[in-house]
Structures are given as C-alpha cells and as structure tokens.
Design goal:
alpha/beta; Oxidized Rhodanese, domain 1; about 35% helix
Length: about 120
C-alpha cells in the first residue's frame, strides 16, 4: 500500500489499480465515487460506483455515502483534478477514510477491467 499524501492540510491515501482490483476481488467493502459529470459517468464507470461531481458533493454525499467511516475511493478519468476536488469536499463533510485512484477510469479501461454503462 502506498503512503498517505497530505494535500493542503488534509490527507488522502493513494491507491493503485492493482490494489483496488485486489480489494474489490476480495470482497472488501469499498465505496467507489466517480467525480466526473453525469454524462461521463453514464458513458462508463467502475462497477458499483456512485456519481458525485465536486459541485454536488455537499448535496449528494449524505444520501449516497451514509457511512462517514467507510473506505471511499474517489477517481475521475485519470487526467483531471475533479477527484481531488470531490475528496476535499468529502473530507470537509467528515469522511475519514478517503483514497485516491489517480490513474482513474482510463487506466481501468486500458487494463481491460469491466465497467458499467447507463442507458
């Protein structure tokens, strides 16, 4: 596991694709949060992920993430900062176990791992 990284006064733990896939395969209770907008989420998202863009985090998180002590992995495409923005909001709302999958959805898809599509 990689070490937590402090970002502007708060801490988020990086997670790699291999670590994330292993934890999911082992059935660990992880909540996946895609921080991209709804159209990108509908096009493809990691299995079981919920959609919480940064601007909607305050409104959506209490309903979609009721357990503030759950392991929450936030990701975006892999080439954006939206995941960190959503993670900052979640941290401010009291979520205590935040992980950042920096390589994101592009990395997941390039590795041939499954995604879900809406519509």
């Amino acid at each position: 596991m990689t070490a937590p990284v402090g970002v502007l006064g708060w801490v988020i733990t990086p997670i790699t694709r291999q670590e994330l896939a292993a934890r999911l395969d082992a059935g660990e209770p992880i909540v996946l949060v895609e921080a991209l907008g709804p159209a990108f989420y509908a096009d493809a998202h990691l299995p079981g992920a919920v959609n919480i863009p940064p601007a909607l985090a305050d409104a959506l998180a209490p309903e979609l993430l009721p357990d503030r002590d759950a392991d929450v992995v936030v990701y975006c495409s892999g080439t954006c900062e939206m995941a960190l923005e959503t993670a900052r909001r979640l941290d401010a709302l009291g979520y205590s176990r935040l992980w950042h999958y920096a390589a994101g959805k592009e990395d997941w898809v390039e590795a041939g791992l499954p995604v879900e599509r809406d519509g």
